[in-house]
Known about the structure:
This protein is an alpha+beta fold and 637 residues long. 58% of the residues lie in helices and 16% in strands.
Amino acid sequence: MNPVHDKAATALRELLDLLDRGAPLEDFSRPAATARGAGALPGEQALVEEATRVALDIRRTLDQHRRREAELTALFDTAGDLAALRDLDAVLRAIVHRARMLLGTDVAYLTLNDPAAGDTFMRVTDGCVSAAFQQLRLGMGEGLGGLVAQTARPYASADYRTDSRFRHTPAIDSGVREEGLRGILGVPLRVGDRVIGVLYAADRRLREFAPDAVALLASLADHAAVAIDSARLLEETRTALVELGAATEAVRAHGEAMRLAAETHDRLTELVLRGGDVADLAYEVAALLGGGLVVHDADGSELARVDSGPIPAPVRGAAASRSGGRAVATDGIWVCAVLAGPELLGSISLTGRADLADSDRRLFERASLVTALLLLLRRSIAQAEDRVRGELLGDLLTAEPHGRPRDAGSQALRVLRARKLGVDLARPHAVLVLHCDTALRPRLAAEAARQARALDGLAGLHEGRAVLLAPASGRPGVLAESLAADLGQALGSPVTVGSAGPAGGPAALPAVYAEALRCLEALHSLGRTGTGADLPGLGFLGVLLGDRTDMPGYVEHVLGPVIEYDRKRGTELVRTLEAYYAHGAALNRAKDALHVHVNTVVQRLDRIARLLGDTWNTPARSLEIQLALRIHRLMSS
């Protein structure tokens, strides 16, 4: 073979080898230079150069095909990501990363429009190093990206820093300089006719972006827009499903609450209709609400308690509930005022429940209404019963005209009426007459009725005075003192109580009432308002005023300890007292009458002082002791 032809053939084979290896474009000039240096003829040299040009065209075509293949692969991968969309941020990061790789730029990023703020903000970046750049916000029309967002057209700049086509701002220019960007390409993200953001590719060197780069970035932007819109629709669907689920749950909860309310209404109505009391209601409500329940009346007295320890009346909580008209939580306890219109009847307290759902709270408030109904019924029944008791008390205390004895029939009828009210007139009873300021008499009568129910007695107004009839086996003065103190504290005003009895039977009650009335008048005369006593407790004055004078009882009251001491020890303390008073309280004359030494008289008087108290020798006590001594001598003779 001709050596020249050999050199041309060698050059052609080398070009084919370069094409096969995908060698860089600058390597394709080497075969022609080698042939020229080997002395190839002009025709052969032209052939080699033509072959070099064709090889370069083929190389460029292959590069374009490879790039198109890569672009299509990226687009297919992006479509696949969208089809399996789970995380919008992940999809957007993948799109931005592919844009950076395919266009071969240093940086790629994506901004989204904020309709509320009227600007566009950085959403995803890839390759960025500046924190300030990653936090940029661009106003509509500001910078390259703001112009793309405003006009919905792609824009490119080979050197943004010196490009005067765009409205520069200090914030944008500072961020671009800090990131070191020069060439920037931005394309709009479109959903229909609406622009929702901008996709960018940028280099830190001067760069002219070819039309195919713009087309590629636009294709990726379209995918990003689809991803964002799909995510929005998916989020709206999820939100709708959540709202639908919440609405369904609300309907279910409302239905359950309605069912529970109806069931509760039926149970509480049945409780009232079968005659249940406040304790029955407390048991039902505590079971329904799963807590402890305590019911107090308006005075703070406990009416019922279930599954709870004793707690004080919730005055502050009841006041807050009364003013707000709802149940309130106070110190970990739910409280609801029990009201009848504006009147406070009491309160109910729920323990053991830190929180109450709306349905449980309404149930608790409904329980307060039923409690109010029961308390009103109880009060009405009590008032009716008190009227009946008062009428019976009036019959028992009223004497027959002209002092005639009561016939056996009417007496038996009164006993039967009393028995129906739980009062046994066969037992001895005391009569107590109560007095306070006129304005407080209705409250005194109500308190007396409450005390009478507790004592299994009767109470009411008789002849304009509050009177209480109570079983008593001993002196009624002790009960009178106790009632005067308790009622005075309840009313906040002095209450005076005169007492008498006990009466041996119903026939004696009018006379016992008259004696109790005289005792009350004597207490006022003696200035002992706000106290309670019986006539024996008033000393000799009681002896003078009483028609059924109990002489032995008076002597026992005044001298009992001294008489008992003499009886047990055989001493002469009573005789010493008689001699002492008979001789004008003179010790020397008393010792002569007793025929003992004066020291013996002193020792006996000291013993008497220890038995009767240090005030035994005061004028008032001396008078009582001397009267008791005289009665004792008469009874002993």
